[in-house]
Specification:
By secondary structure, the chain is of the alpha/beta class. It is built from 23 helices and 31 strands. Helices cover 36% and strands 21% of the residues. Helix 6 runs parallel beside helix 7, helix 19 crosses helix 20 (554-568) and helix 22 (628-637) crosses helix 23 (655-671).
């Protein structure tokens, strides 16, 4: 599938509809009607063996009767006939096909969908669907779908897995005066998916913002790389995704710490963060973001001014501005003097600027005219509550007038419904972003600012180390498979970590009391003793860890641990103990982990570690492989991040070595995708300059 094929999908010169029905209120009839009567100026060929004319157009009885090139094929016939019909169009040089028909993978017919894809690839045809609504390009009045309404033309592209949601979005967007550059329902996305469309839209001059409704996403690494390119550079385009299925009730439990902490949505959260994708948590938020980006210039958004006619909403908006990471702009003395000169004495000319309840349009206009000229103000939130003397439409016109003179982002909240509807309608018609409540206004403006900041950060390369022994790990895994082993307890896991040059403590495994004594004499230091068993996951839970042992009591402690564990876990196979030098006591315990997401691949986990990791659940996730930038973001994203800076007289921790270990874990996972679970818990982080130490770990492969 070539990008040029997608261009002919959205800008076809000729279209054929297979299954153009004469029966009203059917898919085939609605699509034919939209194409014949909606203003599309290209050629339209309708195919139906039982009709001669429809909507004033000739109807062909069979596709073989059409002897011209067809750019776009629309199919709405029973699923079992679709591959055969597409194969018959080879002579027509078809570039793209939208299969509206259902009855493929979603109905359990996997082989039929596979055949459909095969036929399309064989003929170099871009396939949209099957089981989709169709394709719309308002720029050329193309409505190749069964949506009843044609969206207005604009700069927002919308991609959706759900066809039913598409029709609601069109209706809602028309009401909010949001226009679309492209509108695509991808259904089963058997061929063309979000990736192909994002790549196409990234260079589409009509598209400024990309909205996506997704139920699932694949090929995470390609998606991350592509979105990082699209959302950065000289012409960054925001990609905003509404992802359904946040909760996964009934998901199978996973034994590792990482698995139990990674809810079904954790992988997607990590994916969006790394890719620079903006996540909308609701349909209303999706449209708030669509407005703020499509109707404003991309500008930094550190300092915000608030203009209101009511103190209460002003305070609410102030709280939201600060909580969303922005600052109240410090109004310049010059601006404040002009405001005092032109506003009533009782008006508050400090930020938030309170124009008082009797404010009419002139006060809003004066305030905004001065604020857009103030270099200390990056963006403005305008709030109006309807009072008896409020001039709703005139105030809207005043806002529109000022916005046309500036490139500073402005968003407006006229609080109310019926009494402010005419003003809101005016604002939306004139390309001004609106929200129903001030909280949404602040969050939307902050989201725009965060996107601008992120778009200016250069992309890093993935981690690479030249001091790892990949071959040694490969041999360990190969030998394990030959022996039917897929789980690696601590002693074996440490050998794997050592091959990737993770910093380890001195350790050795002992199988009996004599070996224990010999190792203790060799180490000649305080040690930790840990049970070794393929059947025991969390050693502390069964008394399988004893600390601060020395060579004088080593035999006694060995007998104790073997007895205790046998009592707690009598069915477990005990393979001895691991003796490890005691870790320094001046560190912070963190956890590094990995888990395999079936759709998105290897997830990396980082957070506060130790035995309370599942209590505090202060962890974040990334998708392997990661960059240094990604690792730094993970470190800064946990709630307890200030611990590593040094608090209450404690030393600053060695954050650089945490980042390095995240990088080494990323390389291990990239090199060995068969790793399904991994825990390094704890990783002891020592003061700056002293490094880190792996204290415990386990690995599971498929």
């Amino acid at each position: 599938m070539e990008i040029t094929n997608l261009d002919q999908l959205f800008n076809p010169q000729s279209i054929a509809v297979i299954g153009a029905s004469t029966k009203e209120k059917t898919v085939g009839n609605d699509i034919a009607k939209n194409l014949a009567t909606g203003g599309f100026t290209g050629k339209v060929f309708l195919v139906n063996p039982n009709a001669d004319e429809l909507f004033g157009l000739k109807v062909y009885h069979d596709i073989s009767e059409i002897n011209e090139n067809i750019d776009l094929l629309i199919i709405c016939i029973p699923a079992q006939f679709v591959p055969q019909v597409i194969a018959q169009t080879a002579k027509n040089n078809v570039k793209a096909v939208a299969v509206i028909s259902a009855g493929f993978k979603e109905a359990g017919n996997y082989e039929l969908e596979t055949e459909l894809v095969r036929v399309c690839k064989q003929n170099n045809i871009a396939l949209i669907g099957p089981n989709c609504l169709g394709v719309i390009n308002p720029q050329i009045k193309l409505n190749a779908s069964f949506a009843a309404l044609m969206p207005a033309a604009g700069n927002v592209a919308f991609i959706s897995q759900s066809g039913a949601l598409c029709t609601s979005v069109i209706d809602y967007a028309r009401n909010m005066k949001i226009g679309f550059s492209k509108f695509i329902s991808i259904g089963n996305k058997a061929d063309v998916d979000e990736l192909g469309l994002i790549e196409y839209l990234s260079s589409d001059p009509d598209t400024k913002v990309i909205l996506i409704y997704a139920e699932s996403l694949n090929n995470s690494q390609r998606l991350i790389e592509l979105c990082k390119k699209v959302t950065k550079g000289t012409n960054p385009k925001p990609i905003i995704i509404l992802k359904s299925g946040k909760t996964q009730a009934g998901a199978s439990a996973i034994a590792s710490h990482t698995g139990s902490l990674s809810s079904g949505d954790s992988a997607y959260q990590a994916l969006f963060s790394q890719a620079g994708i903006i996540r909308a948590n609701s349909i209303s938020e999706l449209f708030n973001y669509a407005q703020i980006f499509s109707k404003n210039t991309l500008k930094k958004m550190d300092n915000v001014a608030i203009v209101t006619n009511a103190g209460g909403p002003g305070v609410v908006t102030t709280d939201e501005v600060v909580e969303n990471g922005m600052n109240l702009a410090k109004i310049s003395e010059e601006t404040e003097a002009k405001l005092k000169q032109n506003l009533p004495p009782a008006a508050n000319t400090h930020n938030p600027i309170d124009l008082l309840g009797d404010a009419k349009a002139d006060r809003y206009e004066i305030a905004l005219q001065n604020l857009v000229l103030d270099q200390n103000v990056d963006g403005i939130i305008v709030v109006l509550t309807p009072q008896s003397m409020s001039e709703i439409e005139a105030t809207a016109q005043a806002i529109i007038k000022v916005k046309q003179t500036t490139d500073k982002p402005i968003t407006v909240c006229f609080m109310g419904k019926e009494s402010v509807a005419s003003g809101v309608n005016l604002l939306q018609q004139n390309n001004v972003a609106t929200t129903e409540f001030p909280e949404a206004a602040a969050k939307s403006l902050a989201t725009l600012g965060k996107f601008v900041n992120q778009s200016q950060i250069s992309n890093n390369e993935y981690f690479y180390f030249d001091d790892i022994n990949k071959e040694k790990v490969r041999q360990i895994f190969d030998t394990a498979r030959q022996n039917g082993q897929n789980s690696f307890p601590e002693s074996q896991a440490l050998e794997i970590f050592q091959a990737y040059n993770f910093p380890l403590l001195k350790s050795k495994q002992a199988h009996n009391a004599d070996e224990v004594q010999n190792i203790a004499d060799e180490f000649n230091c305080n040690m930790a003793m840990k049970i070794v068993s393929p059947d025991i996951l969390h050693k502390s839970d069964v008394g399988g860890v004893i600390l601060n042992i020395n060579k004088d009591n080593i035999r006694q402690k060995f007998a104790e641990i073997m007895t205790t564990v046998s009592q707690h876990k009598p069915e477990a196979k005990l393979e001895g103990v691991l003796l490890m030098e005691m870790a320094p006591e001046n560190g912070v315990e963190v956890i590094l982990g990995a888990n395999k997401d079936p759709m998105l691949g290897s997830m990396i986990m980082f957070g506060l570690g130790g035995i309370y990791v599942e209590v505090f659940k202060d962890v974040v996730f990334g998708i392997a492989p990661i960059t240094r930038q990604d690792a730094q973001k993970m470190l800064q994203s946990i709630k307890s991040k200030k611990i590593f800076d040094g608090v209450r007289g404690k030393a600053e921790m060695d954050k650089e070595k945490i980042i390095e270990c995240l990088g080494r874990l990323s390389c291990l996972l990239a090199d060995f995708p068969e790793i399904t679970e991994l825990d390094i818990n704890p990783l002891m982080v020592l003061p700056k300059g002293e490094g880190v130490r792996v204290l415990d770990g386990r690995i599971v492969i498929k």
